[in-house]
Fold each of these.
Amino acid sequence: MHWINWLIVVVYLAYVIVDGVRKSKDTDTISGYFVANKSLAWWVVGLSVMATQLSAVTMIGTTGQGATDGIRFVQIYFGLPLAMVILGVTIVPMLHGSGVYTAYEYLERRFDAKTRSFTALLFLLSRGMSCGTILAAPAVVFSAIFGLPLVWSVALIGIPTVIYTMIGGVQAVAWADVKQMVLIIVALLAVMVVLVIQMPVSPNDALRIAGSTGRLQAFDFSFNINETYTFWSGVIGGTFLMLSYFGTDQSQVQRFLTARSVNEAKNSLLMSAYWKIPLQGLVLVVGIGVFVYYQFVRPPLLYNPAHEAAVVADRGSAYSALERRYSDAFTLRESAALAVADADEDTLRADAIATFLERDGEIESLRAEALALAGEVTDEATSDVNYIVPRFVLSELPIGLAGLFIAGVLAAAMSSIAAELNALATASVIDFYRRWVNPDALDSHLLRVSKGATAFWGIFACVVATYAATLGSLIEVVNRFGSFFYGSILGVFLLAMIPRAKGWGAFLGLISGMTTVGYFNFRTDVAYLWQNLIGAAVVLAVGIALGSFGEKSKSEA
């Protein structure tokens, strides 16, 4: 990469770290370190909430998802506005006004210690794994740039981020998130401008080509619980996913707990309700733009440079023969794509689209052969969806803009990882160490323990990251990890709003919910979005059924 690009990356990251720490204050107390003494403005909290989601996974995994699968992924967010409204009148005032540091601390006040600890443990497992996946995304970029083993790329990003998180506290994380959001949006818009300028066809023709492959189909109204991305899975399953993520996941709860008041906490979530879907659409459209661009500029047969190099070294002649077939097929597909763009009558357009889809199928078949060859050589999973956009950025973007995009990816990764690590440390210290080990510890001692917890979860995330990049689309991996836990956790918080629910009912309901979700996850083809609804429903059903048994709840005592 050109030295100007490196200069942009280094200067921006240094600015984010230095200015983020400079803006942090009162981090010598638990309240200041974990919830900023409830002093942050709603717009800072709102941008932080959105930035935690718009991570490096979004920049790499979601854009790659758009390139390979189109815009239909956006349906997962159709339940977000409804979820934010529901949270604004239920969980947000309940938690913000309770004086807790974690969402799970509230569960002991409402139910009992075992329900609190089990729920917090599930959060630590789910968010620890998701944090590793978020770390894997920029590691993919570094691996592609330097040719380093993935484990070294993970360490290169993870170690500085752990150190930054240990020093800055939640205020430094929040202010870094504000800068991250600005840079991400600027970088995405700049890439779109470059794509439009460099595309050899008009934007209207580009949309026609993308539409012919189904990549612009944003709505699927079929009701099939085995299909992941449909309107109904997004509105129903997605609502439960968003309710749990934004309302019970400590990484998000900790954000609105830093707001000055309940109303400002509500406003911070409503910002996501208004802007998340358009932003997610922009991210996916960038990926679709890269797909169309590669109809006219020959893309690599393998997007992963490390796998490409390994195959060339081990199976050079076979790969060269495959490359020649690929070049011939690309020329035919390019002509077919131009024919789709030029067709001005419905009959001609239908014939042109049919030919284009046939040629595109031949390309995908050749790429499947190449991926299979790479799998034989490397003995690794070879899905390269996460390498599509990094490869495009490094090979096609002009000097300066490539550095801006890479800086955006790394800044997004660092701030998102920092937010996750801060939440993991908070839950570890408040829900386990202070609750079970040292209830009378001073703030100074708890702060030292929290920094040690941050280091532990940073190492855990690095371990997960070393294999997460091989699991397929990173954005899907994150949501699959979350959906395994989120529905059941949400069910417990919903039970907390039902007066008759008791501690044993909540605890056994949580176990039942996790068991049921585990069955559907490993033994059926039910799409992961529906697992959020299933988990919540089972916890509610068991908890309500056992509501008349066992000890009285805290609220009734």
Note: Residues 308-381 form one domain.
Amino acid sequence: MKTKILFVTLFFQLLLWSCHNTGGNFTLQEESLAPIPESPRMYDEEQEMSEAEPQHNTEEYDIIRENEFLDAKQNPLSTFSIDVDNASYSNIRRYLDYEMPPVDAVRIEEMVNYFSYDYPAPNGKHPFSLTTEVAAAPWNKEHMLVHIGMQGKKLDLDNLKASNFVFLIDCSGSMGDSNKLPLLKKSLRILLEQLGDQDRIAVVAYAGAAGLVLPSTPATEKRKILAALDKLDAGGSTAGGEGIQLAYEVAKENLIVDGNNRVILATDGDFNVGVSSSSDLVRLIEEKRKDNIYLTICGLGMGNYKDGRMEQISNAGNGNYFYIDDIREAEKVFGREMRANMFTIAKDVKLQVEFNPAAVKAYRLIGYENRRLANEDFDDDLKDAGELGAGHTVTALYEIIPQGSAEEVRLSADLKYQQTSLSDQALNSQELLTLKLRYKPLDAEKSILLEEVIANQRAQFDASSDNFQFSAAVAGFGLLLRESRFKGDITYERVAAIARQSIGADPNGDRAEFVQLVRKASLLDD
């Protein structure tokens, strides 16, 4: 073997010398020549292919700058849009089979919201209930956690709105791996089983150029739909922008008035032809959402996964975002939680918290860094925000430093022209904060305002509910994965212990799996 390699290498070197010195037309780049081994070495075909075609990890994640503690006197308001995405959790789970995830792949609010919580069902005129709870933080006993939970109203299955779905499927060459297009086909079969007589499906594929694979077809024609999906093959470059435009056109042409109209985009995010920059795609999606067509994004695969781009597009398009790492996750997204994920019951949902500086020295919102809004945006009905799905739960956590704590917090410089003083109501009340929420009914463009006061009552962590404890465990796990400077004295062992004692009803094993995931991370994180 060595003799053959030496002979071939010497032959090409002589050929190169000859061409360079005789003015021949044939040229060969010298740097492409394999070096002559300095010592005997065995070569095999698999190794040669590996060296000839190196696989590079080009996954991309947008940087996340963690929310800081803010002085409640100087910054009494905190405003953000709800987030029902949970792609980060399943992506982290995929990483933890082999290695620790990149810190910017960890979005704590998506980890917390991967799980459902046992909140009371809404019983009034609003399509959701609100639940709040305050107790000590498990990673810093001097701090408090404020737990805010929303429970969306479940659908009346006897009176479901008709659905107009357009599958927008990335069939580019990067989608050929078994955990991409082949997994997607199996996933969409699961969704198809959930649809009824009045629902319709179209399929748009894109690779090099976008094309209509299947015009809008009744969901009852399963054989025809499955045949169209089975014909899809990966190949070519990714004309993502053209595909999105065509998918929205098809959805609009088949729009069901007062129905559930949605584009379902499945991709690894590697757009590289046509409208491809994140900013251009975001502007395109923002324009399309005016037609009241919602967007669901399903990320797949590894190696060249573009998480940041897909999160931006989802946030811009009245959408939600999932990562399908295996068939079990596909069953969760497209099967048992399909209605929560695909049927919206409230739009542009925003929360604003006003802290009482007499009770709160400083606070920070845990996660939601990409969902923060300017305080002025709360009352602006033109400002887009998140959507709540049917039967869906949404959870948010604030960490609080109580007033009277000796802990130092960062302050702004003193103002020259004005002073801030506390009102008698702040000084004399037992209020910790006021929670305000705005949402729009699906058929309205004017928002509805709700308010709720939370009393300054602090419970011990062990006396808090399973909802509170499990969400805190997931948040603590996120702090560890992010190597956060706010993680306090939390450990993997403490996270697992809290999760085990608060596991509650777990019919599908999601919470039990979380405990095992914490164990994996503790073994990998050395």
Note: The radius of gyration is 27 Å.
